[in-house]
Automatic annotation (TrEMBL):
Pfam families the record matches: FAD_binding_3
Keyword Oxidoreductase: yes
Source organism per UniProt: Geomicrobium halophilum
Residue span(s) of domain FAD-binding: 6-347
InterPro entries: FAD-bd (IPR002938), FAD-dep_Monooxygenase_BioMet (IPR050493), FAD/NAD-bd_sf (IPR036188)
One MF term in the entry's GO annotations: monooxygenase activity
Keyword annotations from UniProtKB, A to Z: Monooxygenase, Oxidoreductase
PANTHER family, A to Z: MONOOXYGENASE, PUTATIVE (AFU_ORTHOLOGUE AFUA_6G14510)-RELATED
Protein name: 2-polyprenyl-6-methoxyphenol hydroxylase-like FAD-dependent oxidoreductase
Keyword Oxidoreductase among UniProt keywords: yes
Length: 377
C-alpha cells in the first residue's frame, strides 16, 4: 500500500480500533480514529487475554504496561454450586497457554492502547458518530452525526457487535440474540473471605443453566475481582429488566437465582458495587470480511460466545494482521489475505464454542492452535 498517500479511517476506539491504528502507524500508514462517544469512558468490566493476545501487545512494546495493569492466571478451576471441584487446568507451565494467560480490566487495556496512540501522534476524535459512508473510485467518505465528514483511502469498521459500519455495508447481517444474558461485576478481594491468588474459578449450576467466572485482575486488594455471570434465557430479557434496571434490583435478582449455592459467589455479589448487565448477541459467520474499501475487525466481524475468553485477543490479532497485510500489499490483496488467513481458524473455533463448551474442550488441538497463534510482525 502507498503509505505516503493513504489515510485510513477507523470507526471505533475500542480494543480492535486502537490496535489497528497502532499497527498501521507502525507500518508507516497514516490513520485516524473516530469514536461516537463524547469521550473515553471507564466502561465494561474486563477480559482474559490468551497468549495470542499477549503476543500482540508485546509486539507493540507494551509488555511492561500489561504486566503493571493485569494479573496472571496460574490455574483455572471449575466447581459445582457446593464448591466441589469438577476439573482444573494448570495454566502456568502448560504448553496450551504458553505461560501467558492474564486478566485485565477493560478500561486499563484501553488506557494502555490510548496512551500509546497519543504518544505516537495518532488522532482520536470523539463525538463522531457514524451515520453513513460512501465508497468512491479512489476512496471512501464517512459522514458523522455532527454534520461533518471525512475522506480516506480505506475505512476500518471497529465499532463492535452493533456496528453501524456493518449495518451500512452489509444491511442483511444483523446481531442475533444468543439465548444468553451476561452480568459483569467488579468487587474487592479485601472485602471477601476467599483466597484467590492466581486461581480463576468458575461455578456452574447445571440444573439451572447458570454459572459465573471469577478472577483477580490486579495485585491491589481494591476493585481487583472481576466476575462474569452467564445465564440462559430463551426469550431476550427486556432492557428495562436488565440493561436499564436499577443495580440493586439486579443484585437481588442474582441473589435469588443463587439462593441454594454454597460457595463464595454470593458474598462477592453482596460486596459488589459495579454491576454491568447485558443481553449477549452473536453474529453469523460473514461470507466476506470486507467490501470494496471497507474492512472489519473485532466484534464488528466475529462476536462470539464469551465463555472461551478469546474475543479481546482476537480483536488484538485482527488489528495486527490487517496492518501487516497492508504494510506488505496493496489493499485489495491485503484484504484478501487477511480474510483468507484468519477466517478458517476463527470460524472453526467459533463454531466449536457455539456448539457448547464440552465440544470446545474436546477440540484440544483447535484450542492450542488458537491460543498459541503467534503473528510475526
Amino acid at each position: 500500500m502507498n503509505q505516503e498517500k493513504a489515510n485510513v479511517l477507523i470507526i471505533g476506539s475500542g480494543v480492535a480500533g486502537l490496535t489497528t491504528a497502532l499497527f498501521l502507524n507502525k507500518a508507516g500508514i497514516k490513520c485516524e480514529v473516530f469514536e461516537g462517544s463524547p469521550s473515553e469512558k471507564e466502561t465494561g468490566a474486563g477480559f482474559v487475554l490468551a497468549p495470542n493476545g499477549v503476543n500482540v501487545l508485546d509486539s507493540l512494546g507494551l509488555t511492561t504496561e500489561l504486566n503493571k495493569y493485569s494479573y496472571p492466571i496460574g490455574k483455572e478451576s471449575t466447581y459445582n454450586t457446593d464448591n466441589e471441584e469438577i476439573m482444573s487446568i494448570v495454566a502456568s507451565g502448560n504448553k496450551l497457554f504458553n505461560n501467558q494467560l492474564v486478566t485485565i480490566q477493560r478500561h486499563k487495556l484501553i488506557k494502555i492502547l490510548l496512551d500509546k496512540a497519543n504518544a505516537v501522534g495518532i488522532p482520536v476524535h470523539y463525538n463522531k458518530k457514524l451515520v453513513d459512508l460512501n465508497q468512491e473510485h479512489r476512496g471512501v467518505k464517512a459522514f458523522f452525526a455532527d454534520g461533518s465528514s471525512e475522506q480516506g483511502a480505506l475505512l476500518v469498521g471497529a465499532d463492535g457487535i452493533h456496528s453501524k459500519t456493518r449495518e451500512i455495508t452489509y444491511p442483511t447481517i444483523k446481531p442475533i440474540y444468543s439465548g444468553f444474558y451476561g452480568i459483569h461485576g467488579i468487587s474487592s478481594s479485601s472485602l471477601i473471605n476467599m483466597e484467590m491468588d492466581t486461581e480463576a474459578k468458575t461455578y456452574i449450576d447445571f440444573d439451572n443453566y447458570i454459572g459465573v467466572f471469577i478472577s483477580k485482575s490486579s495485585s491491589s486488594p481494591t476493585n481487583d475481582l472481576l466476575w462474569q455471570f452467564i445465564g440462559k434465557s430463551e426469550r431476550k430479557i427486556p432492557a428495562t429488566s436488565l440493561e436499564l434496571a436499577d443495580r440493586s434490583y439486579i443484585k437481588d435478582w442474582l441473589l435469588k437465582q443463587t439462593k441454594d449455592w454454597n460457595n463464595p459467589f454470593r458474598e462477592i455479589l453482596r460486596n459488589t458495587e459495579v454491576i454491568l448487565p447485558r443481553s449477549i448477541y452473536e453474529l453469523e459467520n460473514m461470507n466476506h470480511w470486507y467490501h470494496g474499501r471497507v474492512v472489519f475487525v473485532g466484534d464488528a466481524l466475529h462476536a462470539t460466545n464469551p465463555l472461551p475468553g478469546i474475543g479481546a485477543s482476537w480483536a488484538l490479532e485482527d488489528g495486527m494482521y490487517l496492518a501487516k497485510m497492508l504494510k506488505e500489499h496493496g489493499y485489495r490483496d491485503a484484504f484478501h489475505y487477511y480474510e483468507n488467513d484468519r477466517k478458517p481458524m476463527v470460524e472453526l473455533f467459533k463454531n466449536a464454542s457455539d456448539n457448547g463448551l464440552n465440544e470446545l474442550l474436546e477440540s484440544i488441538e483447535t484450542m492450542r492452535t488458537v491460543y498459541g497463534n503467534q503473528i510475526d510482525w
